[in-house]
Design a protein that fits this description.
- 31% of the residues lie in helices and 37% in strands.
- The protein is an alpha+beta fold and 140 residues long.
- It is globular.
- A hairpin with a 2-residue loop joins strand 2 and strand 3.
- Bound molecules: coenzyme A (COA).
- Coenzyme A binds next to strand 4, helix 3 and strand 5.
- The site of coenzyme A (COA) has 16 residues, from strand 4, helix 3 and strand 5.
Length: 140
Protein backbone atom coordinates (compact mmCIF):
# COMPACT_ATOMS: atom_id res chain seq x y z
CA UNK A 1 0.00 0.00 0.00
CA UNK A 2 1.33 3.43 -1.07
CA UNK A 3 0.57 6.59 0.89
CA UNK A 4 1.92 10.10 0.24
CA UNK A 5 2.07 12.66 3.06
CA UNK A 6 2.66 16.42 2.72
CA UNK A 7 4.64 17.72 5.70
CA UNK A 8 6.67 20.69 6.85
CA UNK A 9 10.40 20.21 7.35
CA UNK A 10 10.16 19.62 11.10
CA UNK A 11 7.88 16.63 10.50
CA UNK A 12 9.60 15.32 7.34
CA UNK A 13 13.20 15.88 8.33
CA UNK A 14 14.23 12.54 9.86
CA UNK A 15 12.91 10.31 7.05
CA UNK A 16 13.49 12.74 4.16
CA UNK A 17 17.12 13.33 5.17
CA UNK A 18 17.75 9.60 5.48
CA UNK A 19 16.37 8.93 1.98
CA UNK A 20 18.15 11.90 0.39
CA UNK A 21 21.50 11.01 1.95
CA UNK A 22 21.19 7.46 0.67
CA UNK A 23 20.17 8.45 -2.88
CA UNK A 24 22.07 11.68 -3.55
CA UNK A 25 25.15 11.46 -1.33
CA UNK A 26 25.83 7.70 -1.19
CA UNK A 27 24.48 6.61 -4.60
CA UNK A 28 25.06 9.68 -6.77
CA UNK A 29 28.11 11.06 -4.90
CA UNK A 30 26.66 14.57 -4.58
CA UNK A 31 28.67 16.42 -1.90
CA UNK A 32 26.71 16.47 1.39
CA UNK A 33 27.06 20.26 1.73
CA UNK A 34 25.36 20.77 -1.67
CA UNK A 35 22.58 18.28 -0.89
CA UNK A 36 21.76 19.99 2.42
CA UNK A 37 20.93 23.58 1.47
CA UNK A 38 19.04 26.12 3.56
CA UNK A 39 15.76 25.93 1.59
CA UNK A 40 14.23 22.93 3.37
CA UNK A 41 12.60 24.93 6.18
CA UNK A 42 10.72 27.04 3.61
CA UNK A 43 9.51 24.03 1.56
CA UNK A 44 6.65 21.59 1.76
CA UNK A 45 7.88 18.01 1.68
CA UNK A 46 6.27 14.87 0.30
CA UNK A 47 7.05 11.57 2.01
CA UNK A 48 6.05 8.29 0.36
CA UNK A 49 5.23 5.33 2.59
CA UNK A 50 5.20 1.90 0.99
CA UNK A 51 3.92 -0.89 3.23
CA UNK A 52 4.73 1.22 6.30
CA UNK A 53 8.26 2.19 5.26
CA UNK A 54 9.33 5.66 4.06
CA UNK A 55 10.87 5.05 0.62
CA UNK A 56 10.68 8.36 -1.25
CA UNK A 57 10.59 12.12 -0.94
CA UNK A 58 10.43 15.40 -2.87
CA UNK A 59 9.90 19.08 -2.06
CA UNK A 60 8.00 22.14 -3.30
CA UNK A 61 9.61 25.56 -2.88
CA UNK A 62 7.47 28.65 -2.31
CA UNK A 63 8.46 29.89 -5.81
CA UNK A 64 7.02 26.81 -7.58
CA UNK A 65 10.20 24.80 -7.95
CA UNK A 66 9.98 21.07 -7.34
CA UNK A 67 13.19 19.36 -6.27
CA UNK A 68 15.07 16.70 -4.32
CA UNK A 69 12.96 13.92 -5.88
CA UNK A 70 14.39 10.66 -4.53
CA UNK A 71 13.14 7.09 -4.25
CA UNK A 72 15.24 4.35 -2.62
CA UNK A 73 16.79 2.03 -5.21
CA UNK A 74 14.82 -1.08 -4.21
CA UNK A 75 11.50 0.78 -4.48
CA UNK A 76 11.93 2.32 -7.95
CA UNK A 77 9.79 1.68 -11.05
CA UNK A 78 6.74 0.96 -8.85
CA UNK A 79 5.08 4.33 -9.39
CA UNK A 80 6.34 5.89 -6.13
CA UNK A 81 8.22 8.76 -7.82
CA UNK A 82 5.25 9.50 -10.07
CA UNK A 83 2.89 9.59 -7.09
CA UNK A 84 5.20 11.99 -5.20
CA UNK A 85 5.46 14.27 -8.23
CA UNK A 86 1.70 14.37 -8.82
CA UNK A 87 1.06 15.06 -5.13
CA UNK A 88 3.50 18.01 -5.20
CA UNK A 89 1.85 19.33 -8.37
CA UNK A 90 -1.56 19.02 -6.68
CA UNK A 91 -0.19 21.00 -3.72
CA UNK A 92 1.16 23.72 -6.06
CA UNK A 93 -2.25 23.94 -7.72
CA UNK A 94 -3.95 24.14 -4.32
CA UNK A 95 -1.70 27.12 -3.50
CA UNK A 96 -2.80 28.87 -6.69
CA UNK A 97 0.47 28.44 -8.59
CA UNK A 98 0.08 28.67 -12.38
CA UNK A 99 3.13 26.55 -13.22
CA UNK A 100 5.83 24.40 -11.66
CA UNK A 101 9.46 24.13 -12.74
CA UNK A 102 12.30 21.77 -11.95
CA UNK A 103 15.89 20.97 -12.86
CA UNK A 104 15.79 17.39 -14.08
CA UNK A 105 18.82 15.15 -14.11
CA UNK A 106 18.96 14.31 -17.81
CA UNK A 107 18.43 10.56 -17.20
CA UNK A 108 15.03 11.45 -15.70
CA UNK A 109 13.78 13.68 -18.57
CA UNK A 110 11.50 10.91 -19.90
CA UNK A 111 9.99 10.41 -16.44
CA UNK A 112 9.11 14.10 -16.14
CA UNK A 113 7.85 14.28 -19.74
CA UNK A 114 5.40 11.50 -18.92
CA UNK A 115 4.11 13.76 -16.16
CA UNK A 116 3.48 16.76 -18.41
CA UNK A 117 6.80 18.64 -18.12
CA UNK A 118 8.57 20.13 -21.16
CA UNK A 119 12.24 20.99 -21.61
CA UNK A 120 13.35 24.62 -21.63
CA UNK A 121 16.79 25.91 -22.61
CA UNK A 122 20.09 24.10 -22.69
CA UNK A 123 21.50 21.25 -20.61
CA UNK A 124 23.71 22.55 -17.79
CA UNK A 125 25.90 20.97 -15.12
CA UNK A 126 25.23 21.08 -11.37
CA UNK A 127 27.03 19.05 -8.70
CA UNK A 128 28.83 17.29 -11.58
CA UNK A 129 25.53 15.98 -13.01
CA UNK A 130 23.93 17.17 -16.30
CA UNK A 131 20.56 18.86 -15.74
CA UNK A 132 17.72 20.16 -17.88
CA UNK A 133 15.23 22.85 -16.84
CA UNK A 134 11.62 21.64 -17.30
CA UNK A 135 8.24 23.32 -16.83
CA UNK A 136 4.63 22.22 -16.46
CA UNK A 137 1.82 24.72 -16.88
CA UNK A 138 -1.07 24.06 -14.49
CA UNK A 139 -4.50 24.46 -16.02
CA UNK A 140 -7.14 25.36 -13.47
C1 LIG B 1 13.72 9.62 -10.72
C2 LIG B 1 13.07 8.80 -9.59
C3 LIG B 1 12.66 9.73 -8.47
C4 LIG B 1 11.83 8.10 -10.16
O1 LIG B 1 11.22 7.37 -9.10
P1 LIG B 1 10.40 6.00 -9.39
O2 LIG B 1 9.70 5.63 -8.14
O3 LIG B 1 11.31 5.00 -10.00
O4 LIG B 1 9.36 6.54 -10.46
P2 LIG B 1 8.15 5.77 -11.14
O5 LIG B 1 8.13 4.35 -10.74
O6 LIG B 1 6.92 6.58 -10.90
O7 LIG B 1 8.49 5.96 -12.67
C5 LIG B 1 9.71 5.54 -13.21
C6 LIG B 1 9.55 5.33 -14.70
O8 LIG B 1 10.72 4.77 -15.28
C7 LIG B 1 10.46 3.41 -15.69
N1 LIG B 1 11.60 2.55 -15.33
C8 LIG B 1 11.97 1.48 -16.01
N2 LIG B 1 13.03 0.91 -15.44
C9 LIG B 1 13.35 1.65 -14.38
C10 LIG B 1 14.35 1.54 -13.38
N3 LIG B 1 15.25 0.55 -13.37
N4 LIG B 1 14.39 2.47 -12.42
C11 LIG B 1 13.49 3.47 -12.41
N5 LIG B 1 12.51 3.59 -13.34
C12 LIG B 1 12.44 2.70 -14.31
C13 LIG B 1 9.22 3.05 -14.94
O9 LIG B 1 8.49 2.05 -15.58
C14 LIG B 1 8.46 4.37 -14.95
O10 LIG B 1 7.91 4.67 -16.20
P3 LIG B 1 6.56 5.56 -16.32
O11 LIG B 1 6.93 6.95 -15.89
O12 LIG B 1 6.18 5.47 -17.75
O13 LIG B 1 5.56 4.94 -15.38
C15 LIG B 1 14.04 7.69 -9.08
O14 LIG B 1 14.48 6.92 -10.16
C16 LIG B 1 15.25 8.19 -8.28
O15 LIG B 1 15.17 8.48 -7.10
N6 LIG B 1 16.41 8.29 -8.96
C17 LIG B 1 17.65 8.71 -8.29
C18 LIG B 1 17.61 10.17 -7.87
C19 LIG B 1 17.29 11.06 -9.03
O16 LIG B 1 17.88 10.95 -10.09
N7 LIG B 1 16.32 11.96 -8.81
C20 LIG B 1 15.83 12.83 -9.84
C21 LIG B 1 16.52 14.12 -9.76
S1 LIG B 1 15.92 15.16 -11.07
Amino acid sequence: MLRIEILDWAAARAEASRIRLKVFVEEQRVPREIEMDDMDAACLHALAWLDGKAVGTGRLLPDGHIGRMAVLGESRALGVGGAILERLVEEARRQGMREVVLSAQTHAIGFYRRHGFSEEGEVFEEAGIPHQEMRRVLNS
